[in-house]
Design brief:
The protein has 551 residues and is α+β, with helices and mostly antiparallel strands. It has 4 domains: 107 residues, no CATH class; 111 residues, no CATH class; 139 residues, Nucleotidyltransferase, domain 5, CATH 3.30.420; 93 residues, no CATH class. It has 21 helices and 13 strands. Strands 1, 4, 5, 6, 7 and 8 form a 6-stranded mixed sheet that branches. A 3-stranded antiparallel sheet has the order 11-12-13, with no helix packed on it. The protein is flat.
Length: 551
């Protein structure tokens, strides 16, 4: 397919006349076109198309249709039908009333090009640029960030189902690429065992029966892997992606028994959640648990502006695998905002993002005041009455000494840097001071290092910053400011209820990112439409009973 960018023509007169007659007060699609123009243009997507080939549907229209599609929760077929049938869509797209549109498969091809060209962020970036130019969005304001879970578009499988279903998926793939060869490798019983989807109700009942089933499936899978690795195996079978998946699942989930059979691995021997494959059909979805919620899929981080005098717009979307910790994502989020020239002066986050390193990096690198509660000392000393936490030790940075609450001076001070580049300070005390100390029960339970107390300190700048943050979060001003962070829950509520944010439409991390970015762009159009119509963001609702308590 080839792209020859062409100027965007005005809305056809007949389309405009009929649209205004049908919608005298306009609607969101018409207002968007009148206010923001076409938003996108062909040049913004020119690098995604080759220089030769058949003409392509103008990419600016495909980008706009994609956003409208997510705004109304339409499938590709429904979106293509809307282009053909709906007057307001033709108005937004600048089409004649007689225009027949395009085949629905073009939308899937366009998303694939966005993924291949790492261009999915353009759906949101271009819209944000248009909003910035018109004064609806500004940098160095106030923004808030949080994350929510996204369920993968796969069936959740327990370990036995996963192993057997992986073998079935591999057999199906080999039956397509090398049917004659495969028919020589399998036995007649395999067709009954793997001919249908593996489901819980079809599996054997009882522990002993299931152990025999696992042994049989493990042996069958190993037989397939051995056959594929044989010199006479066809190359197309050896190169099948499903074979690589089978090998990974067998390495993770299946083990040899002492008698030469097969069994499921001990759960304690499994890899970490970030590495375990949860389905042979979705290789990037991962299992995670957060605050008692278990899911297989991804995690979406949303950042939105929250200044009182402007519409609340989503300024950044960051999609990760489910087990990825929030604290490790803040740098990528801020880098993305910096590239868009949309860095805030204050960023409101919850405790999951507020490590001392993030506090320091936000302040020094981006001049962002990161507003969020930081953890208090989580050592056991902080959980007992009058325990000797680090805050009770006096640190003399110039002399490189620490004085304990009992007045004893430290014996050792060493600065180290971890393999990840993290600097820290290790402080030790003399066992001769610690062992006879009458307050030892409130200070240390150490059995190594002679039984003396040892401290691990942040660098001086980070230590001071952490102390300021802990003091600050005890004030009423901090409570009033941080209360605004709760507004991000409204963004998630809107995304979930109106746009299906927590259910992935597609498989794969990058495709899920496309969905999240398009959803954010759709939410922004809706919010801008509401703002211009005089509907300001509502405050957090309170139930009648809760209001009674406040009164």
């Amino acid at each position: 397919m080839t792209l020859h960018p062409t100027p965007i023509t005005p809305i056809p007169e007949e389309t405009a006349r009929i649209a205004h007659a049908a919608f005298p007060r306009g609607n969101i699609c018409m207002q968007m076109r009148d206010l923001l123009g076409s938003i996108y243009d062909d040049e913004q997507f020119a690098d995604l198309f080759a220089g030769r080939g058949r003409p392509v549907v103008p990419p600016w229209r495909l980008a706009l249709v994609t956003v409208l599609q997510f705004m109304e929760g339409l499938a590709d077929r429904q979106a293509a039908d809307a282009v053909r049938a709906r007057i307001d869509w033709k108005y937004a797209l600048g089409l004649e009333l007689t225009d027949a549109g395009f085949d629905y498969s073009v939308l899937s091809e366009f998303r694939a090009r966005l993924v291949a060209g790492s261009a999915e962020e353009r759906l949101l970036d271009v819209l944000l640029d248009a909003c910035t130019q018109r004064g609806y969005l500004k940098a160095r304001g106030k923004q808030r960030t949080d994350s929510t879970h996204v369920l993968a578009a796969v069936r959740t499988l327990h370990r036995l189902e996963r192993v057997a279903e992986t073998l079935r998926a591999t057999l199906n793939a080999l039956a397509l690429v090398a049917p004659e060869w495969l028919s020589q490798q399998v036995e007649a019983s395999w067709f009954a065992r793997y001919g249908r989807r593996i489901e819980e109700e079809r599996l054997p009942k009882g522990q002993s029966a299931r152990r025999l089933y696992v042994a049989q499936v493990g042996a069958d899978g190993q037989r397939v892997l051995d056959a594929v690795d044989a010199p006479d195996a066809p190359e197309r079978a050896r190169q099948a992606p499903e074979v690589a998946v089978l090998r990974r699942i067998w390495d993770q989930q299946v083990t040899r028994t002492p008698d030469g059979g097969f069994a499921l691995c001990d759960p304690k021997a499994l890899p970490t959640a970030s590495k375990i494959l949860e389905s042979p059909y979705e290789l990037e979805a991962r299992y995670a648990v957060k605050r008692g919620r278990h899911w297989v899929g991804y995690k979406a981080h949303l950042t939105e502006s929250c200044d009182a005098d402007s519409p609340h717009l989503i300024t950044q979307v960051h999609t990760t695998v489910a087990p990825a910790h929030d604290v490790e994502q803040l740098l990528a989020i801020q880098q993305s905002l910096a590239e868009r020239h949309l860095l805030p002066a204050q960023q409101l986050v919850d405790t999951g993002y507020t490590s001392v390193r993030n506090l320091a990096r936000s302040q020094t690198r981006y001049q962002i005041d990161l507003v969020g509660p930081v953890y208090n000392d989580r050592q056991w000393q902080g959980r007992i009455p009058d325990g000797f936490t680090i805050e009770r030790f006096q640190i003399d940075w110039d002399r490189r000494q620490v004085i304990c609450p009992q007045g004893r001076v430290s014996a050792g001070w060493s600065e180290t840097t971890s393999s990840r580049g993290r600097a820290s300070i290790h402080v030790t005390f003399d066992p001769a001071d610690c062992l006879p100390c009458p307050a030892r029960a409130r200070c240390t339970r150490a059995r190594t290092g002679g039984g003396a107390r040892a401290l691990t300190l942040h660098t001086r700048a980070e230590h001071d910053l952490l102390g300021v943050a802990r003091s600050r979060q005890q004030t009423n001003d901090f409570a009033a400011l941080y209360a605004q962070r709760a507004g991000i829950e409204g963004a998630f509520s809107q995304g979930v209820r109106a746009y299906g944010l927590r259910q992935a439409r597609y498989r794969g991390l990058r495709k899920t990112q496309v969905q999240d970015v398009a959803t954010a762009a759709a939410m922004n159009l809706c919010r801008l439409h509401q703002w211009l119509g005089g509907h300001l963001p509502a405050t957090t609702r309170r139930s009648p009973f809760a209001r009674l308590a406040v009164a």
